[in-house]
Design brief:
Elements lengths: L29 H4 L5 H15 L1
């Protein structure tokens, strides 16, 4: 996957922010960095994205 916009378009400073910071990571790292209560969501996301890109 490729983000084709400008990184200035990424705004995490919203009224009710979900994230404190962001960075580009490899898909395989996504479940290592997520908070525990969202782990199941990111595990599912990781598997679905892997199916799409393989």
């Amino acid at each position: 996957m490729k983000f084709t916009g400008d990184e200035k378009e990424i705004n995490i400073k919203t009224k009710n922010p979900e994230f404190l910071d962001w960075k580009w990571i490899d898909l395989d790292q996504i479940t290592e960095l997520v908070v525990d209560f969202k782990l199941h969501v990111y595990k599912e996301l990781k598997e679905k994205v892997k199916k799409i890109i393989s």
